[in-house]
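Action item from last week, closing it out:
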Amino acid sequence: MPAYVIAEVEIHDPETYARYRARTPELVARHGGRFLVRGGAAELLEGEEEPKRVVVIAFDDMETARRFYRSPEYREIAALRQKAARTRMILVEGVAEEGSAPHSSGGLRFVGASPIQAGSTSSP
């Protein structure tokens, strides 16, 4: 099942961040990842705070993404990012690709995120 590293980055040292940014593409690729979003235009649709730089990296699965994030090579360059920016980063499991077996939860069957409970006012 695909997995995504999603980061929102607020840069306060562009020079140091540029050094981090120059080193990540090769390392991401070496770990089987690919950038889906890398700082393009972002627009706030809901919420209170305008998005900063947004990055989305796709991996084949959660464990591959964890290996990338925990690798000594990434930990070394992550120190540059941490020095240059405030980051919020999450790892999230994606939706099964068409033709894959769906997740199951109790008697419910669904693909991707858990089903919304009756009476919930949540929206995606």
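Closing note: Strands lie at 3-11, 34-38, 53-59, 85-93, 103-105, 108-110.
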